Amino acid sequence: MKLKTTTLATLLATSLLASPVMANDSWQGEAKDAWLAGKLETALLLNTELNSFTIDTDINEGSVVLSGKVRNQTQKDLAGEIAENIDGVTQVTNNLTIDEKHQQPSTDNEKSFSRTWHDITVTAGLKMELAAHETLEASAINVSTDNGVVTLQGTVKNAAEHDLAIEMAKGYDKVVEVKDELVIAN
What we know:
This protein is of the alpha/beta class. The chain has five helices and seven strands; from the N terminus they run ααββαββαββαβ. Strands 1, 2, 3 and 4 form a four-stranded mixed sheet that branches. A three-stranded mixed sheet has the order 5-6-7. Strand 5 and strand 6 form a beta hairpin.
């Protein structure tokens, strides 16, 4: 069930982010509010600091009301700022309540959707950067990401390629650590 939910959420977020349809000034009423709600829900879902499933959003004529529970004032402020930064939102009423005992639903064995999303995008993006670099043979380097930890495996021609691949991974956004399992060919 978790995989099905994560897959559904991934498809929803991807379709919202990749959609060529843009809300414009001619949209009004419920259509515009629905578009804003989708953008806000996606932004909250992709934020690794918030549990979007415990934050309710209500939008009426561009005015957003946030309700639900968060763990601290920082999370409350963050949710409000995310809502304020959605183009088309005219006002935000932040009614989120702070409950220090409120826990994120994920456990050590279960990654949040946003963490999974970031891991997938880091892996794909880093693979593309490695492939675009003219001195690296990217097909010989395997990239995997788990909770922000990138593991590089495979064979490189020399120490310079090795160092370059490691530095590219360390410099990639959302990477917290790089595990070096690269082998230099003899």
